[in-house]
Amino acid sequence: MAFEKLDNKNAYRILAPRPTIIVTTINSKNEVNAAPFSFTMPVSMDPPLVAFASVPSHDTYQNIEEIPEFVVNIPPETILEKLWITGEKFPYGVNEIEKAGLNQIPSELVAPPKIKECVGHLECKVEWIKDAGDHNLIVGRVVRTDIKPGSLKDGLLNVEKVKPVLHLGGVDFVVGDHLRKVK
Ligand SMILES: Cc1cc2nc3c(=O)[nH]c(=O)nc-3n(C[C@H](O)[C@H](O)[C@H](O)COP(=O)(O)O)c2cc1C
After folding, report:
1. What's the CA gap between 175 and 183, in Å, rounded?
2. Does 104 contact ligand 1 (Cβ within 6 A)?
3. Atom of ligand 1 nearest to the CA of 57
4. What residue's CA is closest to ligand 1, atom 7?
5. Residue 166, strand partner residues
6. Ligand 1, closest atom to CA 62?
7. Residue bearing the CA closest to ligand 1, atom 19
8. What is the rounded distance in angstroms from the CA atom of residue 34 to the CA atom of residue 80?
């Protein structure tokens, strides 16, 4: 059976479903921004580095150029509809956390706040940024990590409980509540 050839522009569509995060940032006027991202991954354990790719025109990227810090917020399934609202296009300076009916709480070591309803938060300081085609790759050093009690099981994310949100594309998500073991 021959494989069906796909347009290379669609390669990212089969690198899915992808973990979905909400990135919070602020600008120099202390205005808060939040937006979902699924082009994201850990890139180093020591030092702890994480990356996400943003279209340069996004408010998130504009803010990071002003204040090079961000928080990776890990959303549970219960806030999927609110996550979607944070992804809508609002004018620059509008706080999507408020628009989505979520709550912000101060971070410990970075200026952008974190989202209370998320189960974990990675407070990050930008290490470097590189142009990557129509996106920019932002790599941040994690300076503080927290997790809601009960969200880990044997040191791993408790997927049955948290039900992390995985992005398939567009409005389609996979909710990771089905765990399959290979052994
Ligand atoms: C589930 C989901 C994942 C997304 N992933 C990305 C991404 O990885 N990179 C990106 O540039 N935009 C991504 N977007 C689009 C932005 O979140 C969206 O354009 C948002 O309005 C940008 O907000 P901002 O201008 O406040 O930063 C995603 C949207 C959704 C709903």
Report:
1. 22
2. no
3. 25
4. 37
5. 19, 174
6. 27
7. 87
8. 14
Identify which of 37, 48, 27, 25 has the alpha carbon closest to the alpha carbon of residue 137. Answer: 37
CA 119–ligand 1 middle distance (angstroms): 20
Distances (CA, A) of 2 to 58, 116, 128, 172, 180: 40, 49, 42, 28, 29
Q: Is the CB of 87 under 6 A from ligand 1?
A: yes
Give residue-wise pLDDT tens across range 110-167: 999 999 999 999 999 999 999 999 999 999 999 999 999 999 999 999 999 999 999 9
* Alpha carbon distance 25, 111 (integer Å): 8
- Ligand 1 centre to CA of 14 (Å) is 18
Asked whether 119 and 149 are in contact (CB, 8 A), the reply is: no
Residue 178 has pLDDT above 80, yes or no: no
Structural domains of the chain sorted by starting position, each given as residue range(s) with its CATH number in brackets:
20-175 (2.30.110.10)
